Every structure is written in C-alpha cells, then in structure tokens.
Amino acid sequence: MDIRMNDFVELRRVMSIVRRRWIWLFVFVLLCGGGGWLFGRSQTPVYQATATMLVGQIMQSTSLSREDVQMSVAFAQTYSDIAVRQPVLKGVVEKLELIESWQKLRKRVRVSPVEGTQLISIVVEYDSPEMARKIADEVANQLILLSPTKSNAGEDSFVNSFIQQQIVDSQERILNSQQRVREIDAAMEGSLSPTEMAELQVEKTTLEGLIADYVKNYVELLNYAGQERKPNSLSVIESAQVGEDPIRPKVQLFGLLGGGVGVALALGLIFLLEMLDDTFRSLDDIHQFADLNILGAVGRIKGRKFSEKIIAHLEPYSPTMEAYRMVRNKLQFGSVFSPSKSIVVTSPASGEGKSITAANLGVIMAQADRKTIIVDADFRRPTLHQVFNVNRESGLGDMLISKRSEFDGYLKGTRIENLQIITNGRPLLNSSELLGSGRMSGIIKYLEGIADVIIFDSPPALLAADATILSNLADGVILVIRAGKSRCKAIRQTLSDLQKANANLLGCICNHMVKETSMEYYKGYGYIPERTLIKNIKGLFTRSANHHEKIETPSGIFRAKAIPEIFQKKYVITLSNKDREYLYQITGTDKLKGYRYKRAMIILKADEGKTDTQIMAELAVSRSCVKRVRKLYATKGLERVLYGNIQSGETRHKNGMVEFTHPFEV
After folding, report:
1. Residues 506-533 pLDDT 10s
2. Co-location of 29 and 87 in the same domain
3. Which of 293, 434, 307, 456 shows the shortest CA–CA distance to 372?
4. Quick check: 244 pLDDT over 60?
5. Is the dihedral of CA 414, 416, 419, 421 positive or negative?
6. What is the pLDDT of residue 656?
C-alpha cells in the first residue's frame, strides 16, 4: 500500500511539474507538429499501380496434375526475379522513352509471386498516376515477350488447327461406319440367301472393328488437344490499376509524428529545466527541509502600494485572512507553555515579502486583542513606514544611539486598534554591532513588558548578519518563503545559519502560493459574505422607520430591524470590571493552560460583543464549544468555566451574571 501511495505521490509531482511548464509542451507540439505537417505537404506525391499475371494455362486446361501446378509456382518465382532485371526494365525504358536509366527504374518496381498461387504481382510507384500505370503494363508485356508464350504462338496455331481437322475427320468416319452397320442390320432382316447373309456378316464385323479403331483414335486426339503442354506460359489477367489518392506522403501521419517528437522534446526540456531550477514553487518542495514547520500558506495579495496589501482592508472571511488566522493560532496554541512574545521575521533573500508578512502578522495579532508592536529592524531597505503611512523619523536607530532610558516617544500609533509600530528611524552604518549590544536587549525587555507580541522585520538572513543577531535575542524566528522566487539552496543555507546561531525556528510562511495550496480550500468552503449575511437578516423583517437595531461587524455598523427574541442569543455574557480584570490578568500570564486559556478567551471575546462566528474564526474553536462556554458561564459561573468544581460559594445568577469570590481572594 505504501509503495502504491508513493507511486501516486510521484505521479502527482510529475503532473504538477508538467502543468507548471505546460507552455513549453504547447509550443513544442505546435512547432514540431506543424513542421511535420508542412514537411509532408512539401513532398512530391507518389502513386501506385498494380498489375497481375498468371503463369501456365490453368484457366484453359481441362485436366491438371500436381506436378503441373508445382512447376507453375516455381516458374512464377523465376519470372518475378527476371522482371526486375536488365532485359525487362531496359525494354520498358526504351519502349516508353523514359529519361531515367533502368537502374533507377528498378527502385520503383516491385515484382513478387502471390504466395500459394501461380500469380505474379507487379507494383510500380511513380510521381504520375498515368506513368505508373503504363510502366506496370509494359513490365508485364516485356515478360510475355521473353517467355515461350509469344515465340511459339505460330507453331501452336498450326498444331492446333491440324488436330482439330483430324478430330473432325474421325467424327465423320465414325458416323459413316455406324450408318453402314445400321443398313447391314436392316438388309439382314430380309429374305437373303446364305451366301449374301455371310457376306453381310463379314462386312459388319469389319466395320465394327474399324469403328472401335476410329473411336480410340478420336479419344486420343481429344486428349492431345486438351492437354496443357506449356506450364511456363504467361498471360495478363488484370491490367494495371491506379488509386485516386497518392500512397505517400501521409500528411496527417507526418503531423502526428512531429507532434510526438515535440512531446518528447518538450518533456525532456521540462525535466531538464526542473532539474536545473532550484526555485521553491509549492508545498511539495518542503520535503527537502526535514525540520521546517509550515505555519501557513498565503496567496498573492493584490495591490500596487505597500499600504494596499494590509489584510485589514480585506473581507473578514477572505482566504488570505483565514490563512493568517491559521498562522496566528499555530503561534498561540502551538506553544501554550512557553509562548513566543518576541518574533523575528526574515527571509533568505530580498523581495520575498517578509515586510508585508510581518505587517499582516501584526495586524492579525492585534485583531485578536493582543497588544502588538512591530519593529522595523531592516536598516538596508526599511519599509514599514510606507506600509502604515507614518513618519520614518524617530525610530529604532535613534533608540539604539540615544542614551535615554525611556522609549515611549518612539512608539507610533496606527489606524488598527492594539497595534503600534517603531519605524527604522536614523540610518545606521554599524547596525549589526548595535543590534547585538546590551542596549538592544534592554529595548526588547522593555517592549515585552508593555506588549503581548513584538514582531521584528529584519533584513534577509543571507544578505546581512542582523537577522542572525536578532534571532539570539528574540523568542522565535519565522522564515518567509516566496513561491516562484526563493531558492532552495538559499533556504537550506538560511536554515543552517539559524541552526548554528541556536535560533528557535518557529516555522515558515509561504506566500504567493498558487491554487493547489491550502489557501484554496477556503474558497471551496464557501463562507457567506458579511454583506450578504446582513442583507438576509434585513430581509427577514419588514422595514420600520422608528425601530431599528445596530448590528456591528468587523467591516462596520449596519442598521436592521430589531431581531425578535427567538433569533437572539440565549446566553449573553456581560462581564463586570472585576471579572474582566481578573481574566486579563490570568490570560497574560502562565496561570492558565490548554482548554482553560481558550475558555477564558471565549468569555472575553463574548464580553466584547463578538458573534460566535467571529470568536470561532479568531480562536480556531468550534461553534458548539463557544455555545457551551456561554451556557456554562451563565448557569454555573466563571469558576466552573475555568476550574470545573466550584471552590467558593455561589450567589445566584441574575440576567446571566454570577457573583462569586475570586480564587486569589480566598
């Protein structure tokens, strides 16, 4: 089973390679197939004429023996060999006044006996159908001239005439003698003397003897006349016939052969290019890197400017948003016991989308209510200030050079809630040395104290040492790979450098992926667009000018008719300030692990007024899990949600609220 699966995987890989470079296959098939067709059309058409001859007189003979047939078959083989030799072909050239020599004509003529018969087949191929027919007929005629059939024609005629005359004479003598015998019989029936009777009897006996001799002679003459005396005679039983269409060239066949050659050449070129091509193209190429974890696969984000490629402008449930949510969830829940607060985003080379990836990763983290700071640590090609349309001045470079111990003035706000950035600031010539200094360690420690996540946009790992230096200071590293641009050799070298630097490689994000990657699954899943959802909600009720309700979504606020109670959620969570502060405190530390952390986050999201669908998308949990937490909180209280059994006395729930003493106050 494993062998079959491996074969299937290899076949899929081969098909993927061919599909990726299908243009070469199309071009080669078109060129070679068209070239074969044109070559066939340029060839001179050749026509074929066929004549048939018979050896012996099998059709005229009344009696045949086995020896006669065997001799005729042997003669047929001999005549077939003679027909393509000088006497015959030279006679054809002279008779038809052909320009070419008999040696060249020999290449156009094929004479062969028909197996098991006394027939000879003469096949002639020529540029002209009429000339092919004439040559075939003339070859047959020249054979007859060389055979005994033509030379003995006069002698045979005289012998046949003499035999026929003797047969006629024998018939007359037999008939006359028989008539005389009948007359004698009639005379002997009358009254005759004994002497007359004796004379008639003698005459009758003599005539009967003569009649017997005449009949014997007659039969011998008939046998001689019907006997086949010439098993080597030749005759034409079918004159030359020419087809309407030429036998060659086969234009369609040339086209097909050319197309086949084109397929072979194209496949050879495709696999040669694939062997020489070291570009990362699909997730199938990840198998080359054994220890590389895939955090997510992101498609191409449309937009001319950097600011147009921020995922905050996209639909909430677009494939790109879902891909980044998966990356966020893997980073959050993949390391519950030791979450990475500071993350370095780098790539093997430039132009692979690391800055946009870092920016969008920060956006998706901020949308999960995690206070996020993005730091532009790329002193060669700073980009983040263009992405978020902020002033580049007063950034990381100034922080590294400055002697100030306060860094509040360097943080710049964005239009996205919970997201701040630190631009590149002053250019540094010795950035590697400053990034590896104690000053940088202090900056990271300060940022970790005021934010949940810090994301560093570093230079490409193979072009500058900054990424390797930052990887030692940060909690983890994310490698950005671009399909169709990143080189496998460069990726391999980057992984080796990070491993030597003892960096904590969290995984890779593959961007600019094509359709066969996992991002396409979101399109097939078919989320309902938000506008369609609100439109459907509005359509459930009639319009009212006085009573409308605001429905808040990630894209904005819509107004719709107030939804009846049967459509409202049964368990609405509204936290007190005390509960909210407590949940913020325990989710910001390591006090909660695993499912307790998820439940706490669900309660916080529900308190913010987010829908079940939004909570599902942001926390990667099921709808039933969200509903269960809502119900458990409204009926049992916060302690039961987080810790199972109630550790302190409950007071009663009112309107879905529970009052209790927090565990840390007991």
Report:
1. 989 998 887 544 444 444 454 445 445 4
2. no
3. 456
4. yes
5. negative
6. 37
**pLDDT tens, 54-82?**
887 665 555 556 676 677 788 888 888 98
Sign of the torsion angle spanned by Cα atoms 587, 591, 597, 600 = negative
Distance of CA 620 to the CA centre of its chain: 35
Number of domains the chain is built from: 6
Residue among 255, 334, 321 nearest 29 (CA): 255
CA distance 251 to 31: 15
Q: If you search the block for the tokens 């499912």, which residue do you land on?
A: 595
65 and 122 inside one domain: yes
The length of the chain, given as a count of residues: 666
Residue 243 lies in a domain: no
Does 476 or 535 have the greater pLDDT score? 476
- Please identify, among 126, 151, 176, the residue that sits at the C-terminal boundary of a domain: 151
Last residue within a domain, chosen from 124, 151, 178: 151
Stated as kind and residue range, the H or E segment containing 176 is helix 153-188
SS3 content of the chain, % helix, strand, coil (to 5): 55, 15, 35
Confidence at residue 552, expressed as pLDDT on a 0 to 100 scale: 44
Q: What is the 3-state secondary structure (H, E, C) of 617-653?
A: HHHCCCHHHHHHHHHHHHHHCHHHHHHCCCCCCCCCC
Distance CA 540, CA 537 (A): 5
Position 322: which residue type? E
Residue pair 314/320 in contact by the 8 Å Cβ criterion: yes
Q: What is the pLDDT of residue 654?
A: 36
My answer on whether omega of the bond before 382 falls inside 30° of 0, hence cis, is no
Please say whether the beta carbons of 315 and 530 come within 8 A. Answer: yes
Q: Classify burial at 395, counting beta carbons within 10 Å of its beta carbon; exposed 0-12, middle 13-18, buried 19 or more.
A: buried
Query: Which position has the token pair 């009777």?
Result: 197
519 and 386 co-located in one domain: yes
Query: Are 210 and 328 found together in one domain?
Result: no
Cα angle value 250/254/258 (rounded, 5°): 170
CA-CA-CA-CA dihedral for 102, 103, 107, 110, to nearest 10? 60
pTM of the model: 0.53
Residue pair 35/257 in contact (Cβ under 8 Å)? The answer is no
Q: What is the CATH number of the domain that holds 112?
A: 3.30.70
Task: Flag whether 236 is in a domain.
Answer: no
Instruction: Provide the pLDDT for residue 271.
Output: 87
Whether 400 and 497 share a structural domain: yes
Rounded to whole angstroms, the Cα distance separating 171 from 165 reads 10
Q: Given CA atoms 192, 196, 201, 203 in this order, what sign does their dihedral have?
A: negative
Residue 445 scores a pLDDT above 80: yes
239 inside domain: no
Percent residues over pLDDT 90 in the chain = 21
| Domain co-membership, 173 together with 80 | no
- The burial class, CB within 10 Å (0-12 / 13-18 / 19+), for 606 is buried
Q: Are 355 and 387 in contact (CB under 8 A)?
A: yes
Do residues 347 and 446 share a domain?
Answer: yes
Q: Which of 596, 604, 598, 600 is nearest to 573 (CA)?
A: 604
Return phi, psi of residue 628, to 5°.
-65, -40
Residue 621 lies in a domain: yes
Instruction: Assess whether 417 and 486 both reside in one domain.
Output: yes
Distances (CA, A) of 76 to 84, 143, 149: 13, 11, 14
* Structural domain containing residue 660: 569-665
Among the ranges 58-67, 73-82, 457-466, 627-636, which has the highest mean pLDDT value?
457-466
Three-state secondary structure call for residue 47: strand
Q: What pairs with residue 122 in β-bridges?
A: 51, 111
Query: What's at 90, amino acid-wise?
Result: K
